[in-house]
Design goal:
By secondary structure, the protein is α+β, with helices and mostly antiparallel strands. It contains six helices and nine strands. The protein has a nine-stranded mixed beta sheet with strand order 1-2-3-4-5-6-7-9-8, sandwiched between helices. A hairpin with a 4-residue loop joins strand 5 and strand 6.
Length: about 220
């Protein structure tokens, strides 16, 4: 079951801006970030597996987290680039990750998706569920034609999420991203990495929906970013 709530529904939608929304599934709520998320967001972004693959300040401080919640995340929607949503458990309201759209092309109706799963929420299939919910809303309600994921070649867990969500591996962008790797002294250093490009089209969701139903739902996936 997917439920959508649109805030400020009386405000006319601009053709180059996503509406301010909240999306609910059976287990999750995808909603705008709030100041209540700051402590959990700091902990999530400082996890070493997130640090390795996410292009974000490290270490993530309270100042960084508040800047994300107050300014950066809302601006991704208002400036037309995409939308950034907190992923929370429906029952506990605890932050379990984030999912966002970025680099949106309003002419071709295509956008890029990215996601992070908190260490305390891994293995529950939350990333896949969030990506599918966002893609369903994007294709069905916003009329989009393509979602693209660009995932570092070494990020096998994120590749698994893309595959479980029905994305098709389309190719490799060589040496296209800077990631991080731990050093012997406990620090981090930048490394270059290839990106695997995954694509998701509206018709791809039909097939994955049937597969998930046959498997009895989202199941337990070892996803973390």
């Amino acid at each position: 079951m997917l439920c959508l709530y649109t805030f400020l529904a009386t405000e006319p939608r601009m053709t180059s801006t996503f509406p301010d929304i909240s999306i609910s599934t059976e287990r999750l709520v995808l909603r705008p970030f709030d100041m209540v998320d700051v402590p959990a967001y700091i902990e999530m972004m400082n996890d070493e597996l997130v640090t390795a693959w996410v292009d974000a300040p490290h270490p993530c401080t309270r100042v960084d987290a508040e800047r994300w919640v107050r300014r950066i995340a809302p601006a991704q929607r208002t400036n037309g680039d995409g939308i950034a949503l907190a992923v929370t458990e429906f029952l506990t309201q605890r932050l379990v990750g984030s999912v966002r759209l970025l680099n949106t092309d309003w002419r071709t109706l295509a956008t890029e998706a990215a996601y992070v799963t908190a260490p305390w929420a891994r293995g529950e299939g939350y990333a896949t569920e969030a990506v599918l919910a966002l893609a369903q809303w994007l294709f069905r309600d916003q009329g989009f034609e393509r979602v693209e994921l660009r995932i570092a070649a070494g990020n096998s867990a994120a590749q698994q999420v893309a595959q479980k969500a029905g994305c098709i591996s389309e190719g490799v962008l060589r040496n296209a991203r800077i990631a991080r790797t731990p050093t012997e002294d406990g620090g981090w250093t930048d490394i270059r990495t290839d990106l695997i490009v995954w694509g998701l089209l509206p018709e791809d969701l039909e097939e994955v929906g049937g597969q998930l139903a046959d498997a009895g739902g989202y199941g337990a996936l070892h996803d973390w970013n």
